[in-house]
Amino acid sequence: MSEHPIAEHAKALHHHLTLHPPTEGFNLVDVRAEIGTESTAEDEVAVVFRWRRNPHTFVVWFGRDLQGPYSDHEVWPEGQNPLEAWCEDVQFWLMEELDTGLLARATRRREGEEIVLSSPSTTIGDEVELWVSDVPQCAPEVSWHPGRRVRLPWRTRLRVALGMLLALLRGRSFSFGWLADVDTEAEAGDGASDGSWLARAGLDPGRVRAIRAEGRLLVWLQLLGEDLAEGPAGHCAVVTCPEQDVACIEVLELSEDAPHDARQRMVDAAVHAAADLGVRTILVPDGQGGHEAVGTALC
Question: Which domain of life is it from (predicted)?
Answer without folding.
Answer: Bacteria
